[in-house]
Design a protein that fits this description.
Number of helices: 7
CATH superfamily: NAD(P)-binding Rossmann-like Domain
Oligomer: single chain
Structural class: alpha/beta
Strand content: 15-25%
CATH architecture: 3-Layer(aba) Sandwich
Number of domains: 1
Radius of gyration: 18 Å
Length: about 280
């Protein structure tokens, strides 16, 4: 997954952020963090139920722990419940498959908020296609969320979705272009749904502890040559579930070198809302 994300984000170098304060593309994010602002006091989710689609994934697992620490009831779904229960405990598990709409019927009953942290990987499983997972999988869950009045839907997408270059590159790159194109379709479906939402587009992902470097947040699909930890992606997603400044926004997120460690917490307030069609 790291390799796939790195290609999607066209990562120049993992050492890049040692000097990123001098790179023009990062300056707007620094400006958003800029002068210290207090992080907004967010409403409590204690006692609520959050559906984490992808709760056994590397981002999803962190999100589950962050939610449980806030007194949230977490619901997840998996094709293999026994295995899921072993990997992620204290979660209400339901047998379902994002690729099979019938199994998702009524999946959002009793759910207050949703994090969608599922991604296709047809390299490991040729039935795990971008169309079924990144596009239609999102759409089905959005439809279910609309039926039950879910308060907020946070979709973890990817940087580069507006620049897929479908006809260019190697066969591998063409497959990744299809991933990006379908992720954009899923995003657009959510944006047009009428639900409260936040779309998060992380750059290249790495497996490191979260909270070690600040998080830059910029509007839209920004070609930032960098990385972000999966744990920090989870932290932003959980924050966006209740952060009123995050609603109706699409952002690129990435780790930056900056002295204000938690500056990202007030950065959503500086992001304009998506334009209405």
């Amino acid at each position: 997954m790291i390799k796939r994300r790195a290609i999607i984000a066209t990562v120049a170098s993992l050492a890049f952020f040692g000097h990123c304060g001098n790179v023009t593309v990062v300056k707007p994010a620094h400006a958003q963090e800029g002068a210290a602002k207090p992080a907004p006091v967010l409403p409590s989710m204690a006692g609520e139920t959050v559906l984490v689609a992808g709760a056994t994934g590397r981002v999803g697992k962190v999100a589950v722990e962050l939610l449980k620490a806030q007194g949230v009831k977490v619901k997840g779904f998996s094709r293999n419940i026994d295995k899921a229960k072993e990997e992620v405990k204290d979660v209400q598990w339901v047998k379902a498959d994002v690729r099979d709409p019938k199994t998702l019927k009524n999946i959002t009953k009793g759910v207050d908020r949703i994090i969608f942290a599922v991604g296709s990987n047809s390299f490991k499983d040729n039935t795990n296609t971008p169309d079924l997972v990144d596009n239609k999988g999102v759409a089905v869950l959005v439809d279910e969320a609309r039926k039950t009045g879910v308060k907020q839907f946070v979709l973890i997408s990817s940087v580069g979705v507006t620049r897929p270059n479908v006809a260019e590159g190697t066969d591998f790159q063409k497959v990744m272009a299809k991933v990006l194109s379908n992720k954009l379709e899923g995003e657009n479906y959510l944006r047009a749904s009428g639900l409260n939402y936040t779309v998060i587009r992380p750059v290249g992902l790495w497996n490191r502890d979260g909270g070690q470097n600040p998080i830059g947040i910029m509007q839209g699909d920004v070609e930032v040559p960098g990385m972000i930890t999966r744990a920090d992606v989870a932290a932003v997603a959980v924050n966006a579930l209740v952060n009123p400044d995050a609603k109706g926004k699409t952002v690129t997120i990435f780790n930056v070198t900056h002295p204000q460690l938690d500056g990202w917490k007030s950065a959503f307030a500086g992001i304009p809302a998506d334009a209405k069609n």
